[in-house]
Amino acid sequence: MLHIACPWCGLRAQSEFTYANDGTLIRPDLSNDSIDDHYNYVYARDPRRGIQDEMWRHSAGCGQFLKVRRDTLTHEIHATGAPQDDLDVPKDDRS
Q1: Do 28 and 15 meet the contact criterion of CB atoms below 8 Å apart?
Q2: Three-state DSSP class for residue 87
Q3: Dihedral pair phi/psi, residue 91, rounded to 5°
């Protein structure tokens, strides 16, 4: 079973969490950016393999969002933290 370390609640089962999105995306400002920028933010994603930052929500726990650095090939979790945290483990640029 996969476990995720919530920064607020500690180590918990993955079933308590909900995947939110890619942790590197920046939401476009609709007052300045085009509708295409917003469409690409919501729908256009390149599937990536390897280690990446993701946003998850501890939906069956404290309800907080957290950043998770996870290998999408092995599902190994390398680091977790608050959304604004810089995670110490270097990102791998496998594709």
Answers
A1: no
A2: coil
A3: -75, 145
Percentage of residues in the chain having pLDDT higher than 90: 57
**Can you list the domains of the chain with their CATH numbers?**
3-23+36-81 (3.30.2270.10)
In contact, 56 and 68? CB cutoff 8 Å: yes
Kindly provide the residue ranges of all beta strands, DSSP E only, lying in 2-44, ordered along the sequence: 3-6, 10-13, 18-22
Note the pLDDT tens digit of each residue in 47-66: 778 999 999 999 999 999 99
For residue 95, what pLDDT is reported? 40
User: How far is residue 14's CA from residue 75's CA, in Å, rounded to a whole number?
Assistant: 11
pTM of the predicted model as reported, rounded to 2 decimal places: 0.78
In 1-95, where does DSSP find H-type helix?
Answer: 35-42
Reading the block at residue 85, the tokens are: 């945290």
| Average pLDDT for runs of 10 along the chain of length 95 | 94 96 84 87 82 96 96 94 84 48
